[in-house]
Design goal:
51% of the residues lie in helices and 11% in strands. By secondary structure, the chain is mainly alpha-helical.
Length: 70
């Protein structure tokens, strides 16, 4: 698949993502996990809750630490 090849190319270079949309976070986390990778996600607001939950490790910054705990 062309999309799978494109993802593989991005994954080889990907180390840190900043200022990603919620959709981008979910796509990246799902793709990396599908390939057998581990994902650590940091978040600083309730909008990061889904990605924090989906990642293997969730790290919380700021006042929304309850989101990461949950």
């Amino acid at each position: 698949m062309h999309d799978e090849k494109a993802f593989d190319d991005v994954k080889k270079k990907l180390k840190i993502i900043a200022r990603a949309t919620d959709e981008d976070k979910m796509l990246l986390i799902a793709g990396i996990k599908r390939k057998g990778g581990l994902v650590a996600m940091s978040g600083d607001s309730i909008s990061d809750a889904s990605a924090l939950k989906m990642a293997n490790v969730g790290l919380c910054m700021g006042n929304s630490c309850q989101v990461a705990k949950d």
